[in-house]
UniProtKB/TrEMBL annotation, chain A:
It holds the Pfam family Rsbr_N. Keywords: Phosphoprotein. Coiled coil: none annotated. One of its GO terms (molecular function) is heme binding. Residues 150-261 form the STAS domain. This is RsbT co-antagonist protein RsbR.
UniProtKB/TrEMBL annotation, chain B:
The lineage of its organism: Bacteria, Bacillati, Bacillota, Bacilli, Bacillales. InterPro entries: HATPase_C_sf (IPR036890), HATPase_dom (IPR003594). It comes from Sediminibacillus albus. This is Serine/threonine-protein kinase RsbT. One of its GO terms (molecular function) is kinase activity. Keywords: Kinase, Transferase. Residues 34-133 form the Histidine kinase/HSP90-like ATPase domain. The keyword Cell wall biogenesis/degradation does not apply. It holds the Pfam family HATPase_c.
Amino acid sequence: MDRKLKELVVENSDTIVHMWLEEVSKSRQTDYTSTISDELFESTNREFVNVIFASVEKQGITTELDDFSERLVNLGWPLSYLTDGLQAFRRVTIDFILSELDQVDSNYFSQVLQAVDKWVDPIINQLVNEYSGSWEHIVSLQRVALQELSAPLIPVMENITVMPLIGTIDTERAKLIMENLLDGVIKHNAEVVLIDITGVPVVDTMVAHHIIQAAEAVRLIGSTCILVGIRPEIAQTIVNLGIDLGKFPTKSSLRKGFQSALELTNRKIVSTKSNHDDDIEKLVDSLDRE
Amino acid sequence: MEFQSCVNINKEWDIVGARQIGRDFARKIGFGTVDQARIATAISELARNIYLYAGTGKICFETIEEIDHKGICIIAIDNGPGIAEISKVMEDGYSTSGGLGAGLPGVKRLMDDFDIVSEQEKGTEIRAVKWVR
């Protein structure tokens, strides 16, 4: 029974392909593929239908299917193109088989449905697995990349370290910030550490709580923590929330924070160009006056 | 009751999603950057409360238009354990989770109108309104 149906389908593959192409192009106008060029769309369709037939003929997963799905994943074709295409294939094939027969009883009908499902379902499973596998892989890579970026510590100068924070802070990241901060302070022997929150979009009680805890922990190991990069709107929301950040110094910008860090470590920025020209001018001025 | 847009809160990252949608919403209504930050912070607090105490829930946004002024209404709904003593959670510094205890009283100060309904074992609904000035 299954074999007979398969032969019927394979022999009439041209008709089915034709029907399928029509079906797929029909739904094309409105959907996601409208930005793809006609040529590419058609060649992909051809290839797709060949892959489907190869897989139907050989009963199961073929290397063609593997190659095809891998390439489409890399090109970033939408998964819905493939599932829609396979659903269309199921529809046309069943239509075709039923139209070839003179009379259909319900038993035969269900056998046809089962047989076609048996061809199409493994392909769908394979493609969906391939796609979701590649997405999971990308997500895990991005998570690692994000973690690497999440709490950097820069020793800008002897005894002074900066931690620039950009983006949302969640519990996981807050933990990392605390760990990196304390490790870094010990490692770089920092007396002052600046936490820059210019790039943090929202400072709510949770974020503030974590910053306060981190600053307190830094204080316990004998260093000073300065919170810098507090934008005016953030300052207002902190006041509205009633959060007390009075236990450690805060500054509006990294530059100001850096200056007070230098003061705390008994240093200052001095221009290397001497002021001789000024002195001579002053002398000339004073001579003029006399 | 129908809301203009809702965000479900199931994971910690949903808080960020709710915040972004809320901020966009506020910008479209015509709030300035300071009020946008206030609204985003308020949403963050409400969403975090849902995530911490109720587990799941949703944050909805509504535009309010009256004859002479416009505003945004943030509605936080959950089916969590409810709040036993509302007067206590509205006090500064009260927290059952070791936090700062500034969340709900903070939201009240960040927004213009604030209304909380909670029933034990049933859930909590908080409505907070901010008017465009």
